[in-house]
Amino acid sequence: MIRQTLLETGSCEERSRKLPSGLVVCLVIAMNLWSSDAMRDVLKNLVNGLSREWTRLGKYWKVPTSSSISEARQRLGCRAMSRLFHKIVRPLAIAQTPGGFLGGLRVMAVDGTVMDVPDSAANARVFGYPGSRKGTRAAFPKVRLVLLIEAGTHLSRYFCNHRVKVEPSLLSLWLNC
Q1: How confident is the model at residue 53 (pLDDT cuts 50, 70, 90)?
Q2: Are the beta carbons of 143 and 160 closer than 8 angstroms?
Q3: At 162, is the pLDDT very low, low, confident or very high (cuts 50, 70, 90)?
Q4: If we measure between CA atoms, which residue out of 72, 22, 75, 29 comes closest to residue 51?
Q5: What radius of gyration do the chain's Cα atoms show?
Q6: Mean pLDDT over residues 81-85, rounded?
Q7: Whole-number Å distance between alpha carbons of 152 and 93
Q8: Burial group, residue 117, by CB count within 10 angstroms (0-12, 13-18, 19+)
Q9: How many of the other CB atoms lie within 10 Å of CB of 43?
Q10: Which site in 7, 88, 155, 163 is 20 to 30 Å from 15, CA atoms measured?
């Protein structure tokens, strides 16, 4: 599924790399599983858990530098992650899921939050700055999220600033789309 999505979005690497696109997709997902660890540590954990046939990295593979990992994430971009999400994520609760349905209707929850994003022209254009005192500006643009959560399974969809951006919990805002 990952390889097919990378081909569809034109996100495959053109030459052999230490961080192939498929591994970068897995890294982005794994970053949320080990969110308190450094990216290099997350990559080590991930590669140690994958079979050599899947990674094709060889026994002398060394963990890339943090800047190489960042560059690989930028090369991947957000389109492949978004497409992969749309292919995979569906409501999970079935009639037998405890708490998944009430009176024949899927139980959903709505929540909201606000998060800072890096202060850049692109982020300011997409997300905007919050209101502040006259003559001043807030330090960072803000992402305003409204989450729709399938209560029985805790699967969520994020709706950002009136523009729908659908992201799974595991792929949240690591990629600045």
Answers
A1: low
A2: yes
A3: very low
A4: 22
A5: 19
A6: 88
A7: 6
A8: middle
A9: 25
A10: 88
Nearest CA to 23 out of 69, 89, 84 is that of: 69
Q: Quick one: pLDDT band at residue 55, thresholds 50, 70, 90? A: low
Mean pLDDT over residues 105-116, rounded?
Answer: 85
Question: What is the predicted pLDDT for the residue at 166?
Answer: 37
110, amino acid identity: V
Mean of pLDDT values over 150-161 = 59
Instruction: Work out the average pLDDT over 100-105.
Output: 87
Helices (H) and strands (E) in the chain, counts: 7, 6
3-state SS assignment for residue 115: strand
State the pTM of this model.
Answer: 0.60
Q: Rounded distance, CA 105 to CA 66, Å?
A: 46
Return the residue matching tokens 């052999």. Answer: 16
User: Which positions ≥6 away from 87 have C-beta within 8 Å?
Assistant: 1, 5
- Residue 88 region by backbone torsions, left for phi larger than 0, else alpha for psi between -120 and 50, else beta: alpha
Distance CA 19, CA 27 (A): 10
Which tokens in the block code for residue 39? 């990216």
